[in-house]
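ok, trying the design again with the full structure, not the truncated one.
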């Protein structure tokens, strides 16, 4: 989003002599230190100074390897060679999410540091809108999250199939004041933070996750009956309509727009 600050992760190492040192997530030793089970030999990870080589002459080029290329190479399946990373199942998934966030951070930093090269000065209307302060910078441009992730009850008349799938698989609990005996209740509150607040539009949250559009019945949202309880969009777990129709299962989809939304 325009004007949003992407914070660097605060990574602190403690040496054997108990001294502390901060490193970047693109330090070559970060992967092995953060994932010692994956890299038990302390293999170097990605860093910004890995040179490209000509595949024919093997001579180094002026270009350096991007994070996307580095991790694509590391995860590649090769004939007659065992890639041990691919055997770690759910742990590998956690590693992939973290590395994808690193890739996106590198791309954002490139855009930030190469504005002149990218001709950002040509975006006159956007710059003028922000300069006049006559618009919310976070709302400039088209939000496309709603086309991919939905946190609302479908219209029963327009899409009865998706309505039934969401009713069976994507309604949380309920818990909270409606059901204090739910196993999801911890210290009097829902551990998954439901019910979520109603809102007319999707907005970017401070924790790295968007606050999805959840319209109230007065704004066009729908009500669904679960065991005699009337529930609105506050109880919908975010989902992708295509995946839900395809698999008819509980598939929670979230948009990760910051490394802060990754729990390591």
């Amino acid at each position: 989003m325009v004007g949003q600050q992407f914070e660097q992760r605060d990574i602190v190492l403690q040496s054997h002599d108990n001294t502390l040192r901060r490193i970047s997530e693109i330090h070559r030793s970060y992967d092995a230190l953060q994932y010692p089970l994956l890299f038990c030999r302390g293999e170097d990870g990605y860093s910004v100074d890995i040179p490209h080589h000509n595949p024919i002459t093997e001579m180094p080029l002026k270009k350096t390897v991007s994070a996307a290329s580095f991790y694509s190479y590391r995860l590649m399946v090769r004939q007659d060679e065992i890639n041990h990373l691919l055997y770690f199942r759910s742990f590998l998934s956690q590693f992939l999410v973290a590395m994808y966030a690193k890739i996106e951070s590198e791309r954002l930093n490139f855009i930030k540091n190469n504005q002149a090269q990218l001709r950002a000065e040509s975006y006159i209307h956007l710059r003028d809108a922000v300069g006049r302060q006559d618009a919310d910078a976070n709302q400039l441009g088209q939000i496309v999250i709603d086309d991919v992730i939905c946190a609302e009850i479908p219209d029963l008349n327009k899409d009865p199939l998706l309505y039934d799938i969401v009713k069976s698989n994507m309604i949380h609990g309920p818990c909270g004041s409606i059901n204090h005996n739910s196993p999801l209740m911890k210290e009097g509150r829902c551990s998954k933070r439901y019910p979520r607040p109603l809102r007319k539009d999707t907005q970017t949250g401070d924790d790295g996750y968007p606050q999805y559009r959840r319209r109230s019945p007065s704004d066009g949202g729908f009500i669904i009956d679960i065991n005699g309880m009337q529930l609105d969009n506050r109880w919908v777990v975010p989902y992708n309509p295509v995946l839900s129709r395809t698999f008819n299962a509980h598939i929670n989809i979230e948009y990760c727009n910051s490394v802060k939304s990754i729990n390591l």
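Keeping the full-length input from now on. Confidence is low (pLDDT under 50) at residues 1-6.
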